[in-house]
Amino acid sequence: MTIQSDVYVIILITIVLAIAMILLSKKINKVDPLEKPKGIVVPIVLATEAVYKTVRTNVGKKVADKLTPYILALWFYIFVSNTISLFGLSSPTANFSVTITLSFLTWLMIQVAELKYGGFKAYMHAFLEPIAPMLPMNIIGKFSTMLSMALRLFGNITCGSIMMSLVYMGTANLSNALAGLVGIQGTVFNFMAPIIAPALHMYFDLFAGFIQTLVFVTLTIVLLGNDIPEEEKN
């Protein structure tokens, strides 16, 4: 049995991010809270505060204190996975097993929130609303959020990867055609790729990767917030 190259990239990103977070947390712990932050601590503090405020607005302070570290880790993991193709590696989020796993974690937290704040009886009764014959549709609807989030992230990142593959195929053919015009026969270096591809990488990898990260993380926060009563958020 052979292991797909995607698996090595997934393991690499996980290890690198884990080491980076450990080192950054140690650096932040050494910072004096009474002093003005400087260096790499500044963007980390600003990003953490921005994410915490967003999470607190949707789920309340009590839950935000526990949820924010996960949201930060989720944000960095998905963003790095979406944009790693800029360095010639395959994007882990172009692998459906990765996106369905991330979506499952969000779905699982939603189910826990529904059970915790609504109770087991209300959770089970929701499958029979508004009438009992709706049970099959309600069961499908219960899993539709997980599937839609996974497919949205997987589809957009995969589409970007396919588009860039087509771009490189096109620039290779264009390079050969231009070389043929000056009398150079055969396959030549794809010299048109560095001219055309960078701008498209900025869109398909960087911009689209950021947008898809934002969408996935925002949906996670909002969907969780919808199942937390308002009195728990105050």
From TrEMBL:
Signal peptide: none annotated. Key component of the proton channel; it plays a direct role in the translocation of protons across the membrane. It is found in: Cell membrane; Membrane. The keyword Transmembrane helix applies. InterPro entries: ATP_syn_F0_a_bact/chloroplast, ATP_synth_F0_asu, ATP_synth_F0_asu_AS, F0_ATP_A_sf. This is ATP synthase subunit a. The chain crosses the membrane at residues 7-25, 67-87, 93-110, 153-171, 178-200, 206-225. The gene is atpB. It comes from the Bacteria. Keywords: ATP synthesis, Cell membrane, CF(0), Hydrogen ion transport, Hydrolase, Ion transport, Membrane, Transmembrane, Transmembrane helix, Transport. It is a multi-pass membrane protein. It comes from Solobacterium moorei F0204. Belongs to the ATPase A chain family. Its main location: membrane. One of its GO terms (biological process) is proton motive force-driven plasma membrane ATP synthesis. GO terms for molecular function: hydrolase activity; proton-transporting ATP synthase activity, rotational mechanism. GO terms for cellular component: plasma membrane; proton-transporting ATP synthase complex.
